[in-house]
Amino acid sequence: MKILNRLAPHPYLTLILTVVWLMLVNRFSLNSLVFGLFLGLLIPFVTQPFWPDRPRLSKPLNLVGYVALVIWDIIVANFVVARIVLFMPNSRRQPAFVTVPLDIRTPEAIAMLGGTITMTPGTVTCDISSKGHALLVHCLHAPDPEAEVATIKSRYEARLKEIFE
Amino acid sequence: MGNYLDILIVGFSVFGGLFGLLGSYGLIKLNDPVSRLHAPTMTSTLGVGAILLASFFHSWAYDNQGSSHELLILIFLLLTAPVTAKFIAKVHISRRTNPDDLPRPGDDRVWASHMNCDESGVPPQQQG
């Protein structure tokens, strides 16, 4: 077990790199699988010093549901933002900065939350507080800033907390 | 069969193109710097996504095998686009705003972009 740990310090990274290689090759064959595995083992081994601790996923399978939810939200939000851009005069739009206090502490989870917020049209993550306890989010049109914060916390942060912590 | 796929391909291309156009129009129409950041996210999610779906169906219909490159492009785009948006926002925050303009950062003292400001909120001189 110990030798396996040394050979493959980051099993998830190995898996991801192998799959990405196979997708790059675009056709499945034993050759590319072996070479992908070789790269997947070599790269984490060489870059080990850059990854001092890896995130521990407590419920990795929930990631699938999370990704599906985010994709659905992106599609819906696109139409909402398209309507705001096309039909709402700038004078009636109420842009606002809101503070989203964070319950999650894992850096990877916070990065993922920030990315999710940005990729959902209508909200952009602008900054993080100096000690990493809150995110600054800009909303394109937020008549009720409190509701935006509540949505982000219940819809995304709660799920990420389940996955990562 | 080929016909239906053609319709799908054309439909997704036009849809993606429309959202690309809409994102560019939003860049002109929205009137403050941070709001302008919202328009390109439409292009880089639904716009690019629809074009990639069209490309996926095309390779499926005409090359007789699926292509996974589109999925890779989408994944890498979704990973990198938020970083660009955040950097643009950070530049705006550190150059154009004072700590008083923004809401309080919860339990912490300042937002990360203002960490080097002195008490009056004046950014330090650029170095190098």
Q: CA-to-CA gap between the ends of chain B?
A: 63 Å
Oligomer: heterodimer
Number of helices of chain B: 4
Strand order of the largest sheet of chain A: 1-3-2
Structural class of chain B: mainly alpha
| Alpha-carbon Rg of chain B, integer | 21 Å
Largest sheet report of chain A: 3 strands, antiparallel
Binned, the helix content of chain B reads 55-70%
What is the share of helical residues of chain A? 55-70%
Reported for the largest beta sheet of chain B, the result is: none
Q: H/E order of the elements of chain A?
A: HHHHEHEEH
Low-pLDDT segments of chain A: none
Major protein interface: A-B, 43 and 47 residues
Number of domains of chain B: 2
Average pLDDT figure of chain A: 86
Main traits of this protein?
heterodimer; A: 165 residues; mainly alpha; 2 domains; 3-stranded antiparallel β-sheet; 3 strands; 59% helix; B: 128 residues; 4 helices; elongated
Reconstruct the topology from this structure.
The complex is a heterodimer of chains A (165) and B (128).
Chain A: H1 2-7, H2 11-25, H3 30-46, H4 62-87, E1 96-101, H5 107-119, E2 123-128, E3 134-139, H6 145-164
Helix pairs in contact in A: 2-3, 4-6, 5-6
Chain B: H1 2-29, H2 33-36, H3 38-62, H4 69-96
Helix pairs in contact in B: 1-3, 3-4
Write a concise synopsis of the structure shown.
The complex is a heterodimer of chains A (about 160) and B (about 130). Chain A has six helices and three strands.
Describe the model.
- The complex is a heterodimer of chains A (165) and B (128).
- By secondary structure, chain A is mainly alpha-helical.
- Chain A contains six helices and three strands; from the N terminus they run ααααβαββα.
- Chain A folds into two domains: 2-50, no CATH class; 62-164, no CATH class.
- Chain A has helices spanning 2-7, 11-25, 30-46, 62-87, 107-119, 145-164, and strands at 96-101, 123-128, 134-139.
- In chain A, β2 (123-128) and β3 (134-139) form a beta hairpin.
- In chain A, α2 (11-25) crosses α3 (30-46) and α4 (62-87) runs antiparallel to α6 (145-164).
- The two termini of chain A are 25 Å apart.
- Chain B folds into two domains: 2-96; 100-128, no CATH class.
- In chain B, α1 (2-29) runs antiparallel to α3 and α3 (38-62) runs antiparallel to α4.
- Chain B starts with a helix and ends in a 32-residue tail after the last helix.
- In chain B, 31% of the residues are buried.
- The model of chain B has no long low-confidence stretch (mean pLDDT 82).
- The chains are: A mainly alpha (165), B mainly alpha (128).
- Chain A binds chain B through residues 20, 22-24, 26-27, 74-75, 78, 81-82, 85-86, 90, 93, 95, 97-99, 101-102, 114-115, 118-134, 136, 138, 140, and chain B through 19, 22, 25-26, 29-32, 34-35, 37-39, 41-42, 44-46, 65, 67-69, 71-72, 78-79, 81-82, 85-86, 89-90, 92-93, 102-113, 115.
